[in-house]
């Protein structure tokens, strides 16, 4: 009986080697930590290293994780290397960096994180003394110091193995999708009712589009998006397109708001964002031998995040001028029109990146490998710019809402009733003339009209201070893990079975009981997605420094070089074994 649904690749073999190494290193660190706790250290013992000493993250941070491909093996050690070079973690994790020897008060100097490689004069010396190299050599002190990072790496790798077990083996059965509008709506109504009754919370101030509110927005959209895929609810296609536009709108709104207010264009912060968007999907592609474009949301958010960053990071001094900010936003519209609406220009730009952005569904092969990227990104090519515009207009619009809130009660009710009526009329005409269009016709107008329902939702959701203050924490919690639930749905909620396959079937733990199976699979799926969210952030804080470009460059080079070398060696051995057999 064949267990695997597709042949093992050299990338998957590399991942396995890296994971086994991380597992052995972590086990060794735990054994050493146990022995250290049982056997008191002698005073002045240089090798003494408390289990909390050298921790990269606060005690409250979640530890877990895994190694994927060759780069995975470097993640924990590269994180560890930040300490070996006296480098600092990002600001939010700085409290976790524990100094082994406290310097004399008179020797108060600038932290090593801001002076390149700290105690080491150059990159090669820093790499040689990094926690990664020391952990590779199984040095006792390094294993103890970076025990939690190793644990994080192993847990991440174990969850990637679970992906493979569920989706690339016949261990678990697969079931057919079936759609019932009654069940689809019932599940959403029940979840929303639970959220209202148990998780209604108040924000401290009635701010327009505050963080808890946008997380709630992402959460309930994600629930409908996932149910749409699970039950194959094709009649909800147009609504799902609007939801995806809402996500992309938030990419423009959130990133513009951050860079416009803080002026923080440092490479470290940008790299942390790229890690958040692509770390998990990279290892998923390695472990399951999939194309990057299978998870099209990731490259789409990545490229539009880059565009927002570039728009504000270029000539940042002009960001203080309202006129020049509007010029930059207008320039983004022109740039997208030229590079997306003129198809020949789009293909000329992206053809060199076919290895990354190309995709072909093995069940529906086509000649144009860039079509999927062009189609997906074109649908939402303008809405991120509208998000930037909304972020730019946020202060005066928030002031307008505040002005309405302060009106005498009769005038206030009159104005709000008038605004709600206008929104209702606009929503009615949008629904009749645009939303009800057939799928292909709707796709043609979606890039130019998706801003309408988004704007109407923002106005109605923020109409009163009570609405702005209150949010549903359950949906907000789900909104924090949208990236993980999006990727995980393919492999541990549904099944793709083959590389680059779409999730055409369901993962089955309890054959013959579809609702019980749905409950069990969904519970495990949400739990794992949340763990992956925590692990990704834990490793991000450990590996990607916010304010030290030298250490960031070193870590990137270290991960890339070690990853490529390990992959080359494993691939050579793997191919030789295949030839011999």
TrEMBL record:
GO cellular component, one term: Golgi apparatus
Keywords, in A-Z order: Glycoprotein, Membrane, Transferase, Transmembrane, Transmembrane helix
TM region(s), chain numbering: 12-32, 185-203, 239-258, 270-288, 295-315, 321-338, 382-401, 413-433, 474-494, 506-528, 556-580
Molecular function GO labels: acetyltransferase activity
Pfam families recorded: Cas1_AcylT (PF07779)
InterPro entries from the UniProt entry: Cas1_AcylTrans_dom (IPR012419)
Region Disordered: start-end pairs: 42-61
GO biological process: plant-type secondary cell wall biogenesis; xylan biosynthetic process; xyloglucan metabolic process
Subcellular location(s) of the protein: Membrane
Main location: membrane
Membrane topology (UniProt): Multi-pass membrane protein
Cas1p 10 TM acyl transferase domain segment(s): 147-552
Protein family: Belongs to the PC-esterase family. CASD1 subfamily.
Protein name, entry field: Cas1p 10 TM acyl transferase domain-containing protein
């Amino acid at each position: 009986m064949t267990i695997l649904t597709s042949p093992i690749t050299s990338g998957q073999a590399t991942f396995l080697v890296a994971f086994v190494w991380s597992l052995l290193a972590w086990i060794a660190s735990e054994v050493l930590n146990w022995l250290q706790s049982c056997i008191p250290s002698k005073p002045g013992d240089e090798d003494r290293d408390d289990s909390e000493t050298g921790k990269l993250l606060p005690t409250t941070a979640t530890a877990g994780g895994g190694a994927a491909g060759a780069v995975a093996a470097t993640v924990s050690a590269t994180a560890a290397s930040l300490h070996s070079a006296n480098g600092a973690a990002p600001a939010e994790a700085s409290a976790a960096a524990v100094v082994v020897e406290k310097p004399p008060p008179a020797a108060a100097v600038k932290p090593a994180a801001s002076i390149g490689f700290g105690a080491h004069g150059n990159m090669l010396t820093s790499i040689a003394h990094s926690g990664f190299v020391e952990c590779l050599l199984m040095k006792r002190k390094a294993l103890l110091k970076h025990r939690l990072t190793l644990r994080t790496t192993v847990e991440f790798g174990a969850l990637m193995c679970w992906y493979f077990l569920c989706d690339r083996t016949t261990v678990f059965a697969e079931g057919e999708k079936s759609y019932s509008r009654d069940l689809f709506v019932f599940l959403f109504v029940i979840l929303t009712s639970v959220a209202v009754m148990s998780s209604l919370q108040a924000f401290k101030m009635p701010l327009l589009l505050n963080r808890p509110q946008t997380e709630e927005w992402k959460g309930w959209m994600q629930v409908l998006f996932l149910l749409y895929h699970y039950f194959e609810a094709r009649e909800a296609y147009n609504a799902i397109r609007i939801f995806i536009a809402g996500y992309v709108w938030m990419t423009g709104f959130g990133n513009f708001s951050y860079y416009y207010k803080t002026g923080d264009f440092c490479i470290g912060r940008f790299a942390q964002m790229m890690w958040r968007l692509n770390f998990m999907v990279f290892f998923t592609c390695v472990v399951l031998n999939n194309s990057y474009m299978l998870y099209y949301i990731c490259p789409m958010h990545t490229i539009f995040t880059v565009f927002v960053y570039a728009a504000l990071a270029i000539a940042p001094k002009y960001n203080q001028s309202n006129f020049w900010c509007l010029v930059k936003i207008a320039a983004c519209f022109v740039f997208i029109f030229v590079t997306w609406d003129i198809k020949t220009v789009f293909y000329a730009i992206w053809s060199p990146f076919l290895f990354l952005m190309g995709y072909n569904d093995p069940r529906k092969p086509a000649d144009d490998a860039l079509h999927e990227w062009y189609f997906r990104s074109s649908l939402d090519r303008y809405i991120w710019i509208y998000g930037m515009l909304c972020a730019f207009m946020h202060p005066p619009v928030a002031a307008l809402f505040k002005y309405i809130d302060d009106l005498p009660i009769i005038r206030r009710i009159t104005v709000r009733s008038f605004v709600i009526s206008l929104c209702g009329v606009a929503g009615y005409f949008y629904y009749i003339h645009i939303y009800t269009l057939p799928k292909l016709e709707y796709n043609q107008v979606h890039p130019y009209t998706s801003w309408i329902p988004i704007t109407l939702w923002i106005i109605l959701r923020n109409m009163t201070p009570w609405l702005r203050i209150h949010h549903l924490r359950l949906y907000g919690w789900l909104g924090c893990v949208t990236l993980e639930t999006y990727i995980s749905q393919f492999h541990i909620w549904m099944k793709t079975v083959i590389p680059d396959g779409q999730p055409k079937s369901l993962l089955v733990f309890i054959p013959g009981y579809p609702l019980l199976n749905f409950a069990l699979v969904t519970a495990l799926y949400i739990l794992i997605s949340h763990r992956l969210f925590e692990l990704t952030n834990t490793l991000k804080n450990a590996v990607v420094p916010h304010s030290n470009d030298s250490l960031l460059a070193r870590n990137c080079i270290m991960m890339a070089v070690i990853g490529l070398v390990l992959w080359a060696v494993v691939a050579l051995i793997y191919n030789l074994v295949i030839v011999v057999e």
